[in-house]
Amino acid sequence: MIRVLIADDQYLVRAGLAALLGAEDDIDVVGVASDGQEAIALSNELQPDVACVDIRMPERDGISVTRELCGTHRESPVTVLILTTFDLDDYVFGALEAGASGFLLKDSPPGQIIHAIRRLASGEGTLDTSLTRRVIREFVNRRKLQPVTGDRGADLLTGRERDILLLLAEGMSNEEIAAELIVEVSTVKSHLARMLPKLGVRSRLQAVVWAYQNRIVTVPQAP
Where are the 4-aspartylphosphate modifications (predicted)? Predict the structure, then answer.
């Protein structure tokens, strides 16, 4: 069962998400919060697998909440899915830097939100398809995500870790990467767990941005 916490300052959004997710047999909405401070308190108490966090909330915003829930000081960091109405808001970039594992627009189809929760709970990352290229392009052009350079990263990564990073940048899931490399899914997860700290990043999404930023793969061109 996937334990989910919902944090949003709009009652209708909280109620709608709770009803949507709670109707799924494999998802349990363990708590709802109306502001950032409450989200952190409930997360500490309830230990959810995934937290759906609004980017703009009173008390503490989504960036602050994400930084707290994903922090290296936590024994069990919480996976954060950012929900936003602002597809290129600076808050989105701040949340990525803070360690968010996924982003979706609030008007995403219900099935996409449910699928995202399941992906995140299984260790995958997710981006709204309309955001992916723009988020990566904007980050590469204007932000320095972390200090590990491409050359230094190449020295730190094993050949298999580099292969996985390239497939990750293509948007593949753990299962797809395992099939491509003819290895077990558990092997892919082990390589990812060792690779992320080497690059100085906290999530799969940050690893993908790192790969584009350091020209390990080509930055998508604007349509």
Answer: 54
> 178 is written with which tokens?
């395992």
pLDDT per position as a tens digit, 85-104: 765 556 777 777 788 888 88
Inter-axis angle of helices 174-181 and 159-169, to 10 degrees? 130
Residue 58 sits in the same domain as residue 166: no
Closest CA to 124 of 77, 85, 66, 81: 81
27 belongs to a structural domain: yes
Over residues 106-129, mean pLDDT: 81
Assigned domain for 6 exists: yes
Residue whose structure tokens are 């290296």:
72
Burial grade of 75 (CB within 10 A; 0-12, 13-18, 19 or more): exposed
Domain's final residue, options 130, 157, 189? 130
Kindly report, residue by residue over 133-150, the tens digit of the pLDDT.
666 666 666 555 555 555
Q: CB of 165 within 8 A of CB of 154?
A: no
CA distance 125 to 117: 10
Look at the chain and report how many structural domains it folds into: 2
